[in-house]
Amino acid sequence: MSKQTPRKQTAAKQATAKQTAAKQAAAKQATAKQATGGKNPGTRPGTGSAGAGGGRIPAPAPEADGAAAKEFSRRRLLGTVGAAGAAGLVVGGAGGAAGVSAAQDDAPKSLSTLGSTRVPFRTAGAEHQAGITTPLQAKGHLVAFDLAPGSDRKAAAALLRRWSRTAEELMAGRAPDADTGVALDAGPSSLTVTFGFGHSFFGRTGLTKRRPLELDPLPDFSADALDPKSSNGDLWIQIGADDALVAFHALRALQKDAAGRARLRWQMNGFNRTPGATAHPMTTRNLMGQIDGTNNPKPSDQDFDERIFVGRDADQAWMRGGSYAVVRRIRMLLDDWEKRSRHDQERVIGRRKDNGAPLTGGSEGTPMRLDANGPDGLPVIPANAHARIAAPESNQGAAMLRRPFSYHDGFREDGAPDAGLLFICWQADPLRAFTQVQRKLDRGDALSPFLRHEASGLFAVPPAAEPGDYVGRPLLEG
User: Fold this and answer.
1) pLDDT given for residue 112 in this prediction
2) Cβ distance 199 to 234 under 8 Å?
3) Which of 201, 134, 256 is nearest to 472 (CA)?
4) For residue 292, with 0-12 CB atoms within 10 Å meaning exposed, 13-18 middle and 19 or more buried, which class applies?
5) What CA–CA distance (Å, rounded) separates 403 from 427?
């Protein structure tokens, strides 16, 4: 037998290795076919080139010049390789299996429940705008505008018409005109956009005779340290969504719509716990760690609509079915609060911190026994406890629907967090609800020393637009 040269030996070894690899691949494919009933795993009808690990990547739709198709294929391939590489770092020697998994995971999927949930902008027969009784979303933006100098009622109508059209498209999960693409991959994610009018709006548009008495400015409170530049405004928008990009996308689109018609006055960003972050649905917590919103009116209450929405007998017909929103930026003095023991914190609030139950016992939903005394003869729920003073029983039945967001805007010069609550409450009459309760809190609430009210606004929020109409048309064109 002749002696092989080193080059021939190398070639022989390479050929043998290729044959062995081919046999192993064929064996794996046969095994996979048996496991899937004879079908080739990772391959779907109409798919294009193979991806990492033998999976298939969907072929792009044909383009006139082919450039877009090439870019699509490139991006999908890079995404698959990136995912496979990351998986390899985690699972180490599992290499091949990780590659197949990454290619399959890269295939398009339906939106999750979180992304696909849609809140209609308008529904035939529905009176109220979305964002009032809608469940709390994870991300929120509050923004106020002042009409541009020289703007009149006609200009305001054009802006509301444009805003309503944009809001309807976004809430349906569709991209508006000249879209930025920020939320291109996401569904509507429970997006809501709610519009309101401030006290100054009516003077700027020559509609002072149609301004409701309920929109009279709120009184001053002793705890107020309000910044005028971050308060009030001609027009107000509340944006909520369960995805931060979807919420920002809406904010940016509406801001662009306002160009030349209205100028930004102030804007605030908030957040809540993401739906699904807890084992079961539960009342949200604020940044003090307290369950916040336990005693809220419920839509199932017999008098809910009477308390929250403007009735049919309202003097201003355009507000019938609408509501009034009080907006307050309330900074929490968290450094001071967190120095208090849990026992002291619970006595300040009047409820247990772990489950929100009143100090008189039971669970979160158990009614407070305001007349219960302890062995020392003193009220179990202290006389100045926040929950006692704010309770409807202590305010002649006055109630409001609280729907807040928390906020954190970094840290102050002394290192304290600039954080707290973007307090938003809804009611049919602010004087009989928010103002009445806040006056009482202002006189002796145990929680007040830990709070600073730094911005404020009151807005008339008209009913939802009729199909084919825009929010506020009965006011602006009536």
Assistant:
1) 79
2) no
3) 201
4) buried
5) 11
Phi, psi of 266 (to 5 degrees): -160, 160
Burial of residue 191 (CB within 10 Å: 0-12, 13-18, 19+) is: buried
Q: Are 179 and 173 in contact (CB under 8 A)?
A: no
For residue 271, pLDDT beyond 50: yes
Could you tell me the two tokens for 131? 């964002």
- Residue recorded with tokens 């009482």: 440
Sign of CA dihedral 228, 233, 238, 244: negative
**What Cα–Cα distance (Å) separates residue 369 from each residue in 106, 173, 331, 351, 365?**
56, 47, 30, 12, 12
Higher pLDDT, 167 or 106: 167
Helix 95-105 crosses helix 67-91 at what angle (to 10 degrees)?
A: 140
Collapsed DSSP state (helix, strand, coil) of residue 77:
helix
Q: Does the pLDDT at position 158 exceed 80?
A: yes
Query: Does this model's pTM top 0.90?
Result: no
Cα–Cα distance list, 357 to 99, 244, 284 (Å): 51, 32, 14
Higher pLDDT, residue 371 or 91: 371
Is the CB of residue 137 less than 8 Å from the CB of residue 143? Answer: no
Q: Is the pLDDT of residue 51 over 50?
A: no
Q: Which pLDDT score, from 0 to 100, does residue 248 have?
A: 98
Mean per-residue pLDDT, 208-219:
97
In this structure, of 53-57, 254-258, 402-406, the range with the lowest mean pLDDT score is: 53-57
Output the CA angle 135-453-410, nearest 5 degrees.
75
- Assess contact for 155 and 261: CB atoms under 8 A: yes
DSSP E strands, 224-312 = 235-241, 262-271
Q: Is-contact 210 157, C-beta < 8 A?
A: no
Distance CA 147, CA 205 (A): 9
Q: Please say whether the beta carbons of 53 and 98 come within 8 A.
A: yes
Backbone angles phi, psi at 263, to 5 degrees: -115, 140
Report H helices in 262-417: 304-308, 334-338, 342-349, 386-390
Catalytic sites, residue numbers: 292
User: 290, 393, 392: which is closest to 344 by C-alpha?
Assistant: 290
Rg (CA), the chain: 30
* Assigned token pair, 109: 């999927």
Give the position of tokens 């409807």. Answer: 392
With contact defined as beta carbons under 8 Å apart, do 334 and 418 qualify? no
- For residue 173, which of 243, 108, 267, 126 has the smallest C-alpha distance? 243
304 phi and psi angles, rounded to 5 deg: -60, -55
